[in-house]
Amino acid sequence: MILFVNACVRDESRTKDLANYLLNKLDDEIVEFNLQKMDLKPLNSELLKRRDMLILNKNFDNDFFKYPNIFKKSDTIVIASPYYDLSFSALLKIFIENMNIGDLTFKYENDGNITSLIKCKKLYYITTAGGNIINDSYGYGYIKEVFSMFYGVKDIEYIKAEGLDIYGNNPDEIMKIIKNKIDKDYN
Questions:
Q1: What does pTM read for this prediction?
Q2: What's the number of domains the chain is made of?
Q3: Among the residues of the chain, which ranges form H helices?
Q4: Do 65 and 104 touch, CB atoms closer than 8 A?
Q5: pLDDT tens-digit readout, 90-146
Q6: Which is nearest to 95 in space by CA: 144, 152, 38?
Q7: Domain of residue 52, CATH code
Q8: CB 27 within 8 A of CB 2
Q9: Measuring CA to CA, which residue among 127, 109, 126, 107 is closest to residue 117?
Q10: pLDDT for 33-81, tens place per residue?
Q11: In which domain, by residue range, is 107 found?
């Protein structure tokens, strides 16, 4: 199963366009998490207490963990989020916060090392930027570290289209170049 984590908020999202283009190349069932339409909330004191109690009681079948249970079963994950303010959308950070569940999606060993409890072996991170992506470490770098550290995912692909709104650039041509690269790399 492919989990499509859609953190795009615009109807005419170029990031979502690239994600859909890639998804059409992949061969498996696709489950979409449209983060705009999900009822994910940033963890606050009340939610943390509830989550901690459910974890303590190993009550992972509770509806509170509905999305992490699907996340856990995904073979491949495609994340699509526009490049916002040197990073990604706040929706994506909230999603990650809600998926990182000790003893459900990862666990700490006695020596402090982390063991993944998810199936995912392949991650695609897709982003687009109107300007140039100044530093990949804040957006893609963060995603890469979270997924390699907590989930042991080593096969991580980074697909980006940047400079789309810079005067003189042709956004359609930039998107075409990236789509041609997807055709070449994923056929």
A1: 0.94
A2: 1
A3: 14-23, 45-56, 66-73, 90-99, 140-149, 171-185
A4: yes
A5: 999 999 999 999 999 999 999 999 999 999 999 999 999 999 998 888 899 999 999
A6: 38
A7: 3.40.50.360
A8: no
A9: 107
A10: 999 999 899 999 999 999 999 999 999 998 999 999 999 999 999 999 9
A11: 2-185
